């Protein structure tokens, strides 16, 4: 059995333990020392090749996952959906127990927990981190990735009792955090964490950093889209108000012209009442200064009937005092005056 057996093992992607079999068999049949040494060298080289192939496969899988993630995030427009997709993908790509994302609060100056995936502790989900405090606060302050296999016992981070308590309630031990950056500005921190000790290697830091880069752009795009939609909604509302006001002005001008023409042609109170009813709809009554009916339209009165004398007198007084029409039950009442002289309603 020669060194070529290792090529066969590489070709079928055999498990690492199987690379010991040729050496075990050679020793069992008392092969010469030179043959065993050759098999040892061949095994080392084969395992190196296997490790290189495994690393390339892993990176290819990560690149495909990143590409899929970028496509998924780019297709989302709602900010909450974008953030949920980011932490869900981060947890899946790194195979951690929890993933979470904090955003900077420009008013307070700290970072706050925005969205989590895999978290079970309410205190952890409400956590806020001052800049420089804890792993996430340090990442936000320095714009530099940090990781630890055992956060509770790691002295390089500034620990606060309330933060360590929330982390302990969640049961987190190993934590990796990378900054979410837009240009030179850190807008938040993306983190992945385990509930047991685990060192994070360089490839995992690079992977999470790449995801954070896509995430920062997606967050910014979602914010811009939200702001654009809000501005469009405000513009549409303003346009509707302007259009309604314009229509109201045009309607009032047309009614004024019609009534002026009617009066100039010698129309009476009945004619004016009929014209007003035609413009506004509904039923109308014209009263003199003493409250006697001068004219009424033939349309049905309001469902609740005309106002009683006391209510009507109060409404007429309110209209005189304000110079505006006032509502009285189902009716609108306006005083009629010529200068200081009150003519009716």
Structural descriptors:
345 residues, alpha+beta, 12 strands, six-stranded antiparallel sheet, two-stranded antiparallel ribbon
Question: Could you characterize the architecture of this molecule?
Answer:
By secondary structure, the chain is α+β, with helices and mostly antiparallel strands. The protein has helices spanning 5-11, 21-28, 33-75, 79-94, 122-125, 134-142, 161-170, 202-264, 269-280, 309-322; strands spanning 98-104, 110-117, 128-130, 146-148, 174-182, 185-194, 285-287, 293-296, 326-328, 331-333, 336-338, 341-344. It has a six-stranded antiparallel β-sheet with strand order 3-2-1-6-5-4. Strands 7-8 form a two-stranded antiparallel ribbon. A hairpin with a 2-residue loop joins strand 9 and strand 10 (331-333). The chain is rod-shaped, with a radius of gyration of 40 Å. The mean pLDDT is 84.
Briefly summarize what is shown.
With 345 residues, this protein is α+β, with helices and mostly antiparallel strands.
List the helices and strands and how they pair.
Layout: H1 5-11, H2 21-28, H3 33-75, H4 79-94, E1 98-104, E2 110-117, H5 122-125, E3 128-130, H6 134-142, E4 146-148, H7 161-170, E5 174-182, E6 185-194, H8 202-264, H9 269-280, E7 285-287, E8 293-296, H10 309-322, E9 326-328, E10 331-333, E11 336-338, E12 341-344
Low-confidence stretches: none
Order of helices and strands: HHHHEEHEHEHEEHHEEHEEEE
Distance between the termini: 118 Å
Which of globular, elongated, flat, extended, rod-shaped describes the shape? rod-shaped
- The oligomerization state is single chain
Which class do the helix and strand fractions yield?
Answer: alpha+beta
Largest sheet: 6 strands, antiparallel
Mean pLDDT: 84
Helix fraction, binned, reads 40-55%
Could you give the order of strands across the largest sheet?
3-2-1-6-5-4
How much of the polypeptide forms β-strand, as a percent range? Answer: 15-25%
What gyration radius follows from the Cα positions, in whole Å? 40 Å
Count of helix runs: 10
